[in-house]
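Below: protein 1.
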Amino acid sequence: MAVDRDLLVGFHAVVARLRNHPESVREILFDPARRDARLRDVMSMAERLNIRMSQADAKRLDGLAGGERHQGVVALAQTVPRRLELEDVLQEAKEPPFLLLLDGVTDPHNLGACLRTADALGVHAVVVPKDRSAGMSPVVAKVASGAAESVPLIAVTNLARAMDQLKEAGVWLYGASEDGTESLFEVKVGEAAAWVLGAEGQGLRRLTREHCDVLVRIPMMGQVESLNVSVAAALCLYETRRQRTPTTRGGGRP
């Protein structure tokens, strides 16, 4: 496909684009053998938005999806220009910045899962290096289940330089590391915070570690020694959101 086109695979990715940028969708291909409520909803949205729906057999959809599970629906769309500047995110955030930085995460499934979690917990952007990292793709968009439309994915030339930029803006950098000096159970996350995680197995690169303000370990109670990066990101981001969210405690027994 042309470089200015997106291929959206599966219901979550297609519906998210229809909701957020319907003007970019050129055509939706669907398997006529599938006639359930989810497809009817997509067809209803497409009709309301005057977007063409075309039948395509499973073999053609399989080819377009490149082996990804398409659920009987694929959309052809123009690429939506994405905000790529870190400065924009810092200036437009309506609360102290809350970011996720991924160092060397090359698996698109992990990146998609991180975007999905980032959306759920109100992260303002996910930052990745341009090299040695997964970028936006149909696989990432599908796994993200719509979050690729709502969470900016910012690719930077130099991750360490971006970390310095965040520090200058008053953002504290928390690196997740198995030999961290503080436990996730005990660390007090600052108001403006960015979590920095590396790929499973390799972890954070030396220069990235050195740019972190604090290294935090996730306590492990069982036999495994490490977590998938998307799972580790979910734990760290959830703890940060928990600390940011005020709670009201009542008296008496629950």
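Below: protein 2.
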Amino acid sequence: MKSELAALSRAHPSVGIFLLAALAAPLFAAAQSYPTGPLRIVVPFTPGGGTDILSRLIAQKLNESWGQPVVVENRPGASGTVGTAFVAKAAGDGHTLLVMPAGYAGNPSLYQKLPYDQNRELTPVSLLASGPLVLVVHPSLPVNSVKDVIALARSRPGEINFGSSGAGTLPHLSAELFNSI
């Protein structure tokens, strides 16, 4: 199973993704008989993105390995907080899992009040994948390096825009950090 997850990580390096389980201690205590029933993998984003695709690949492999149904459920909203809150409030039996990009770690800094306490109600279980963030520009821009992008942006304040996968996500926060240079 470990080698299958490693292969999936290499094949799908979209973002650093963590597998989290609500109060995962029962999972370790009952390792001999785990899982005892169907598993739910919650993806706190819309279907079709990297997190969703990776989760579905993993769900299929877990189903094959354990002989238990593994269902992926999308619960998008508020940079992942809707789905994360659902998992945090789920029964602590290790049968409801969350797959979340690394940007999740920044949510307590971005939101004054979260509907969960990620330090108390969620436990990181495994790093599933990682991948680089890439800076790309439209070919019509007269730049050939990051240094050129910075110079162009400084010469045209407020005119250069960027796109990301959503407010509060790691690509968004990274672009804002880059913007502060």
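The two ends are 43 Å apart (CA to CA).
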